[in-house]
Amino acid sequence: MTRKWDLISKAEEVLEVIMALPKVERARLFDLMAREPLLARYMMPPPPRQIDLNLSDEFEGAPDYVVIFDGGSEGNPGFGYGSYAVITSDGRQRLRRLDFEDDMTNNEAEYDTLIAALVDVSERVGAAGKRLADFTIEVRGDSNLVLRQVGGEWKSKNERMRRRRDIVRSLLSRFGGHRLVEQPREESVRVLGH
User: Fold this and answer.
1) Are residues 69 and 117 in contact, defined by beta-carbon separation less than 8 angstroms?
2) Burial (0-12, 13-18, 19+ Cβ within 10 Å), 159
3) Residues 85-110: pLDDT tens digits?
C-alpha cells in the first residue's frame, strides 16, 4: 500500500522538475494545461448537487470563493491529515495538504482542515487590503457532521467539537455571505485526491 507521504514526496519531485524548467518552458507547459480541455475541467469544479440543509447565510449568484475540504485520520483516533482547495471566481485554484498531530479523530481532522482553509482565505483577503464582508464564500464537503453542526441542524455534544464548530461559525460570519454545500464523496476525491 502506498503511504500518503510517498505520494506527497512524488508530487514534490514532479514540482521540482517543473520548477527547474526554464521560465519560457514553464509558461508553455502552464499554457498547454490551461488550454487542454481534459485538464481545464480541473480548474474550477462543476457545481455539486446541493443538498438543502438550510445551513447558510444565503446569497445570490456565484460565490467569490469556493472551499472544498476533507480530513481524516489513520486510525480513529490516529494520525490526522487533511487537504483543501480554494478556488476563486476567476478559476484560480490553490490546493493545500495538511498533517496534524497523532491521536486525532476523523471529525477533528475535518474541522481543523476547514478552519485552516477559512483562515487561509481570510489572511489572503486581508493581505490584499480588502474586507471579508465584501466577499461571499461557498464551503463544500462530504462531512455530514461538520456541515450540519456548523449550520445548527445537529448539536455538538463534545466540547472539543463545539469549540471547533464555534471557530468555523466565527470565521464564516466575517464574510458577506456563505453557503454550506454537502457534496458526494467522489466529488471531493476528484478535486482533492483522497
Assistant:
1) yes
2) exposed
3) 999 999 999 999 999 988 899 999 99
Which cell is 113 given? 482542515
Closest CA to 66 of 139, 133, 116: 139
Query: Rounded mean pLDDT of 154-176?
Result: 94
How far does the chain reach from its first CA to its final CA, in angstroms? Answer: 14
The torsion angle over the Cα atoms of residues 144, 146, 147 and 152, rounded to 10 degrees, is 110
Cell numbers 494545461: residue: 33
The answer to whether residues 65 and 89 touch, using CB atoms and an 8 Å cutoff, is yes
**Do 17 and 159 touch, CB atoms closer than 8 A?**
no
Name the residue with cell 467569490: 64
Q: Which three cell numbers stand for residue 143?
A: 462531512
pTM of the complete model: 0.72
> Where do the DSSP E strands lie in the chain?
65-75, 78-88, 93-99, 136-141, 177-182
Tell me the residue type at 69: F
Residue in this structure with the C-alpha cell 455571505, named with its chain if needed = 177
Question: Domain boundaries in the chain?
Answer: 4-40, 65-192
Burial class (CB in 10 A: 0-12, 13-18, 19+), 148: middle
Which fold would CATH assign to domain 65-192? Answer: Nucleotidyltransferase; domain 5 (3.30.420)
